[in-house]
Amino acid sequence: MRVVLADDSTLLREGLVRLLTEEDHEVTAAVADAAELMTVLERAPAEQRPDVVVVDVRMPPTHTDEGLRAAVQIRERWPDVGVLVLSQYVERRYATELLTEDSEGVGYLLKDRVVQVDEFLDALERVGSGKAAFDSEVVRVLFSRSSRTDPLNSLTAREREVLAQMAEGHTNAAIAGRLHISQSAVEKHTNAIFDKLGLAGTSGYSRRVLAVLRYLGT
């Protein structure tokens, strides 16, 4: 895949360049801030745009949410470009906006929780192929609401487990294996979840993530 990296940490950026190159991916640009990232994409001919952009949340000049705001713009302007957020932080507002626009080809991983290189590479490939890849802690933070208004209170414990797996981007078959239940049971729980939360039926597991995050977004 063609990949563009955006992270203000020179050490991490160069390390990712080396890793991806060794894995036969093409790193077409590695930049240190969101402005440079947008310039790279704007100047790239359509046939040479990256398959995936890997972007940090906090970058110069203010080190707040520049990267995530750039990610939202990328999804709006170039929906065929996958976006994998790789950060130490979960920024709720723009993370929700990013995911509710269209979660196909979107991922969000926390740097401190990526303990194996293969985890990162797997997430990158999933995003590049139009799928979703979410760290469970990111999902937990985005789902967190006060108990008074939390729509998840209507779900059973098993339905909560299935919903958490759905939000991470797993298929029904994968959920069945991870929870040690049948696939038909997963389908039953999935239907119950959408019925209880009042969500319209959707197809494709990343679309289910989109629907859930849209409903629960802040």
TrEMBL record:
Domain HTH luxR-type: 148-213
Residue positions where 4-aspartylphosphate is found in the record: D56
Domain Response regulatory, residue spans: 2-126
Gene Ontology BP term (one): phosphorelay signal transduction system
Keywords of this entry: DNA-binding, Phosphoprotein, Transcription, Transcription regulation
GO molecular-function terms, A-Z: DNA binding
SUPFAM superfamilies: CheY-like
Record's protein name: DNA-binding response regulator
